[in-house]
Structure formats: structure tokens, C-alpha cells
Amino acid sequence: MKYSDSLKKNQDFQKVYRKGTSQANRYLVMYVLKNKEEHMKNRLGISVSKKVGNSVVRHRVTRLIRESYRLNEEVFRRGLDIVVIARPGAKGRTYREIESALLHLADKQHISNSHDNETEIPLNNRNGADPAEEKDHDKKVND
């Protein structure tokens, strides 16, 4: 991740839980707290409990969240500690569903750069393609 580091210490997670703001949707919960001024990078922490599934499932969900963040890193403002918690509903979800949930929470937390611009790019259509064409393409690929 170009603009981010990982949150690893329990005390850092606890600080974000206590002092940060939280938002949730069906698959994820996101806590956000501004980090120290010397950090102009975001720090991302991911938590997936045993309630989500066995270790294979938990690691898959963790990888999906991390990859969703990595590929959309430029969307997030800098200087934040972000903790993402997977809910049991995240089990078995596709990459696109997890990515959509993560970006939805970034908008709810007002930490996406799209709040700075008047020209907001729709979350589900960042590549500029017509959504109807995108569905047709997905349908042809899956057939």
C-alpha cells in the first residue's frame, strides 16, 4: 500500500475504538480516528472474528478487505487510523460486494476525497462505462 501502513498493536486498535467514530453497513463496521500529525499516511487495521467463519474464511475476508482498500487507496483522505471489522454477513461475499461496502462506509464517514469535489464518481461505476453495458458484459462472461 503506497499511502498506508498497518495498525498492529492492540493499544492502537483500542485507541481507535474508544476515541474514533464508527459507521456500519451489512458487511463491515468502520472506525476512524485522525492520527498524529507526523503521520501523513493512513494506518489500516482489519479485524475478523471467529463468528465470521473458520481460519480459511477469515483470511479470505481479510484479503478482500485489504485488496479493496489497496486498489481504492487514493479515494481515502490522508492522516487517518482506520479499523475495519468484518461482520458475519461478509462470509461468502464477492470482491465487488466487499469493495462496495468499504467505499460506502468511507462516504458515510466523510473520509473519501469525493466529498472535496463537485464531480463525484459513482461507487459502482468508477471506470466510466455505462452500467447497463457493464451488466451485459458480466452476464456474457458468466454464461
What does this entry look like structurally?
This protein has a five-stranded mixed beta sheet with strand order 1-4-5-3-2, with helices on both faces. It has helices at residues 10-19, 55-71, 95-108, 131-142; strands at residues 4-6, 21-24, 28-34, 42-48, 80-86. The protein is globular. The protein is an alpha/beta fold and 143 residues long. The chain is built from four helices and five strands, in the order βαβββαβαα.
| Number of E-type strands | 5
Tell me the structural class.
alpha/beta
| Gyration radius from CA atoms, angstroms | 16 Å
Low-confidence stretches: 117-135
Quick gist of this model?
It is built from four helices and five strands. By secondary structure, it is α/β, with parallel strands linked by helices. About 13% of the residues have low confidence.
